[in-house]
Amino acid sequence: MTLTASRPLSRAAGAARAGRPPVRWPLAALLAVLSLLTVSPFVAMVVVALSPAGRPTVPGRWPESLTLDNLTRVLSSTGFVSWTVNSLVYSVVSVVVILLTASMAGYAFAKKRFPGRDAMFWTFLATMMVPFQATLIPTFVLVNELGGVDTFWGLIVPTLANSQAVFLMRQFILGLPDELFDAAKVDGASELRVYWTIVVPLTRPVLATLGVFVFLWHWNDFLWPLIVGQSDTTRTLTVGLTTLRTEEMQLSTLMASATISVVPCLVVFFLLQRYLVNSIAMTGLK
């Protein structure tokens, strides 16, 4: 009994001496099952997108052959391409402007001293508790009076005031040492130079993380583009895919459209994955 009980302990001690954490097989198996359940809808979407139109496919049976005809048909359609370009413009412009304004505001709220700073910050942060649906009608009326309906500026500008982004940047910049900013001021650096040479490089991981979140928010946004974008010139991809459901279209073609719409999100995530890991690591160290 002593030898049997000592085997798991000796294995764990050997793994610790080798620098490897002991493997917890029940937890690993549970995580593997959950991962498969999470990925299975995406796999089914891709399989249906590659299945011949009108042929049996998942979940009933595995398709006999795979084809790229559905993807080619979607990419050759004029409406889908214009919707994708509109979504890219909507998402990329919003990311650039929000990262710029949020980092500047976060730097001001974290390191600058001015009357009413804390009251202004907490008032701005309180807007997070107001649901977007409560301000939807007044915002639309204002944009309509200014002539912003069915325009890109009317689509983008109302979404730029992001209190979550400002809060995230402010909390991160609070952890930066004040000596860096004091040394820059002693050297005669202007506020713009301090922001560009100190704040931006040191906040690059959190900027990348925030950029991914903002891109996904705007790429998957549906309600506001549905109301403002009333023609194909400003209609985004999420709204366009919904209009396809009202038409008589094969399920494989619809899944091909959805598959292509996921590709930009995956590309952005894999390009900025290193910064996401660095941001999590730095947060743990702080």
Automatic annotation (TrEMBL):
Domain ABC transmembrane type-1 residues, every copy: 84-272
Gene3D superfamilies linked to this entry: MetI-like
Major subcellular site: membrane
Keyword Membrane attached: yes
Annotated TM spans: 27-50, 88-109, 121-140, 152-173, 194-219, 251-272
InterPro entries (alphabetical): MetI-like, MetI-like_sf
Pfam families named among the record's database cross-references: BPD_transp_1 (PF00528)
Places the protein is found: Cell membrane
Domain of life (superkingdom): Bacteria
PROSITE patterns, per the entry: ABC_TM1
Family matches, as CDD domains: TM_PBP2
Alphabetic keyword roster: Cell membrane, Membrane, Transmembrane, Transmembrane helix, Transport
Lipid bilayer topology: Multi-pass membrane protein
Keyword Zinc: no
Similarity field: Belongs to the binding-protein-dependent transport system permease family.
Protein name: Carbohydrate ABC transporter permease
Taxonomy of the source species: Bacteria, Bacillati, Actinomycetota, Actinomycetes, Streptosporangiales
